[in-house]
Every structure is written in C-alpha cells, then in structure tokens.
C-alpha cells in the first residue's frame, strides 16, 4: 500500500523512486490558462512552468505547461488585488456608504452573514482609488471656494469698517456750531 492509500482519492498515487510517493498534478497549457483564468503572459511569468517543449506542429513555438492548482491560486490572488469588498473599501479609504453609491459594483454575491442586509458588493480597486482622488479634488475645490468666500467677507468687513469710520468722522461735523465754524474758516 502506498503512503496515500489510506485516504480515499480519485487520483492514484505512484512511486517515483527513492522511497517517495507522489500524486500526479493537474496540468494546464499556457494558452488555456490565459483564456480560462483571464491571465496575461506577464502574470504567468511569475510561475515556474512544469515543462517547456517545442511544439511538434510548429517548431518556432513552445508549449508551456503549468500546474493548474498554482494557476488557480495566482488567478485568485490577482483577482483579490483587482477587487475590493464594500466594507473593506470603507475602512481602507475612509469612504462613506453614500460615496460608494456613486460606483457600480463589478459583481455581487449573497451575503454570508445576514441576508437581510442585502448582497455583498465588490468594486474594482482602480475605480475606488479614482473615486478617492475625485473626492479629494472636490474637497480641495470646496476648501478653495470657502477660503475665497472668507477673504471676500473679510474685505467687505474691512470696507464696512472704513465707511463706518468715515461716517463717524463726518458725524462730528453734524452739529451746527462745528458747521458754522467750518463755514467761517472757509473750509467749504
């Protein structure tokens, strides 16, 4: 009996020599991995292929074979980097629910915790980062408008204060004695 024979497995084990037993791995060709999992050549360059052979139909091409489990794991990791859950986006980027309502979720799935709260929504991370930049730009514009309004209010207050000072100056000449004195001195 082999080392894995006590487990019930759909895949047989085989002896590789030197006392080692091994289960065969599921393989996937590079082109299949790119189509099936939406990966690019750059993504697959992160993995070490199981084999690279010359294509027997076209000697200028190579056939690259990968471990399918590793390809699945790579695709899942890349997807996790591209997508972000709504609650995680709120925590990481400090967004409110109304901010995220501006975006359309890239996918939804049933909420595993509470069905009453609605589905779990996933957003593209790039869209969330663009939203954060847009909100920051809007805040900067609003702050600049507030600063401009404050400066205009201060200028208006200073002008009003100057007018008040001039009125107080001329109010001193309102009494008849001062006006008569000013008339006799030839000021007016």
Write a brief caption for the model.
This protein is an alpha+beta fold. Helix content is 51%, strand content 16%. It is found in: Nucleus.
Outline the structure in words:
Keywords: Nucleus, Zinc. It is found in: Nucleus. InterPro entries: DNA-bd_dom_put_sf (IPR009061), XPA_sf (IPR037129). The protein has 188 residues and is an alpha+beta fold. It contains seven helices and eight strands; from the N terminus they run βββααββαβααββαα. Strands 3-5-4 form a three-stranded antiparallel sheet. It has a three-stranded antiparallel sheet with strand order 6-8-7. A two-stranded antiparallel sheet has the order 1-2. A hairpin with a 7-residue loop joins strand 4 and strand 5 (62-67). The longest helix is centred in the last third of the chain and has 47 residues, at 125-171. The radius of gyration is 38 Å and the shape is rod-shaped. The protein starts with 13 loop residues before the first strand and ends with a helix. Residues 1-7 have low confidence and may be disordered.
What is the general shape? rod-shaped
The averaged pLDDT comes out at 80
Strand order of the largest sheet: 3-5-4
Determine Rg (CA atoms, Å): 38 Å
Q: Residue ranges: pLDDT <50 for 5 or more in a row?
A: 1-7
The separation of the N and C termini measures 126 Å
Percent of residues in helices: 40-55%
The total strand number stands at 8
The biggest beta sheet is recorded as: 3 strands, antiparallel
Which H/E pattern describes the elements?
A: EEEHHEEHEHHEEHH
The DSSP helix count reads: 7
Quickly give the structural class: alpha+beta
Strand content: 15-25%
